[in-house]
Amino acid sequence: MIWKPWEGYMAPFKLFGNIYFIGTRPASTHLIDTGDGLLILDSGYQESLYLVLENMRSLGFKPQDIRWIIHSHGHIDHSGATRALLEMFPHIKTYIGKDDLDMVTGARDTSWAKEFNMVFNTFTPDVLIHDGDTLTFGNTTFECMASPGHTPGTFSYFWNAIGDDGRVLRAGTMGGAGMNTLAAKYIHAEHLEAEDWRGHYGRTLDKCRKQHCDIFIGNHADQNNTAGRYQRLIAGDKDAFVDSSAWLQAIDKFQHAYDKVITNDPL
Ligand SMILES: [Zn+2]
Fold this sequence. Notes:
- By secondary structure, the protein is of the alpha/beta class.
- It has a single domain, classed as 4-Layer Sandwich (Metallo-beta-lactamase, Chain A), CATH 3.60.15.10.
- Helix content is 27%, strand content 20%.
- It has helices spanning 49-58, 76-79, 82-88, 101-105, 184-189, 197-209, 226-234, 246-264, and strands spanning 13-16, 19-21, 30-33, 38-41, 66-70, 93-97, 127-129, 134-137, 140-146, 155-162, 168-172, 215-216.
- A 7-stranded mixed sheet has the order 1-2-3-4-5-6-7, with no helix packed on it. Strands 8-9-10-11-12 form a 5-stranded mixed sheet, with no helix packed on it.
- A hairpin with a 4-residue loop joins strand 3 (30-33) and strand 4.
- Helix 6 packs antiparallel against helix 8.
- The longest helix has 19 residues, at 246-264.
- The chain is globular and about 50 Å long.
- The two termini are 28 Å apart.
- Zinc ion is lined by residues 73, 75, 150, 176, 178.
């Protein structure tokens, strides 16, 4: 893979209330200003960290004020920059779903780095997240929902976002939607046949469907049409990301892609 991170540049922006987009086109990173320090949701690729840091600064935030990094899962596009951030700011506390621990410590080489011909710099998370955990960071409390399938330790997060006008809206992420790890070839190569790998993903979609979200935060820009909504935002629509139908539409899209894999790519 020839990696030119600058080609993935996206302008940073305030998404809603205390939620900011500071990521890139290939890998979303969000910042939440908790009032008691900054929380980063997915660090992105190490190669594009300079863009993420520059994006933070241009919005008026200081990277040294990051207190927490929460990961949707352990793949290189979501946690690849965490080690570099920890080396710069050792006080940062890191969180990941308990079943992706092996991935980020390097005990299992499943960070998707080898497929991208990249290097994953490992780290040891401070906190392992369990299904149903609630985690409070300043003014923000995350409800953590285990969402295995894309990876064993994928987590979806839901929290109350507070708008500038005082509105409290439920924001949420679907922690891992990609179908790359559901391919029969991948499952055989990683010897995952016995783990009902695809079944986990299907059950995760069922759990997601029961959730309500006013603001769907994509962990890749195409999930929630980040770029298109940004255009509406800068054109004056302050609620461009407030859309209570976007979540279920996305889950339906993932379900459709999942059903296609099951039909067209038998194990
Ligand atoms: Zn992934």
